[in-house]
Backbone:
């Protein structure tokens, strides 16, 4: 699969606390392949990001678990696991 764009860095937002990332892909088959890998990871981890997608992009948002007030190591680890799918 081609490298997604832009810069592969998650943005940390405060209101509400969350991590965000936008991935760009060359075409829809690449988006679909990524979403299928993401589905397997989410099922395995029992954790699901909010997402939206189009023909050439995926937007991801990771919120803290319900018992956490801020983004912490669990969210950062999940983001790294998602990065590993690329």
Residues:
């Amino acid at each position: 699969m081609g490298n997604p764009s832009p810069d592969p860095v998650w943005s940390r937002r405060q209101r509400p606390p969350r991590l965000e990332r936008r991935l760009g892909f060359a075409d829809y088959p690449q988006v679909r392949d990524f979403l299928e890998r993401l589905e397997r990871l989410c099922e395995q981890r029992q954790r699901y990001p909010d997402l939206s997608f189009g023909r050439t992009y995926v937007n991801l948002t990771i919120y803290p678990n319900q018992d956490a007030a801020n983004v912490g190591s669990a969210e950062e680890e999940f983001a790294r696991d998602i990065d590993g799918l690329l």
User: Anything to note?
Assistant: The helical segments are 28-45, 73-83. Residues 17-83 form a domain with the Gyrase A; domain 2 fold (CATH 3.30.1360.20).
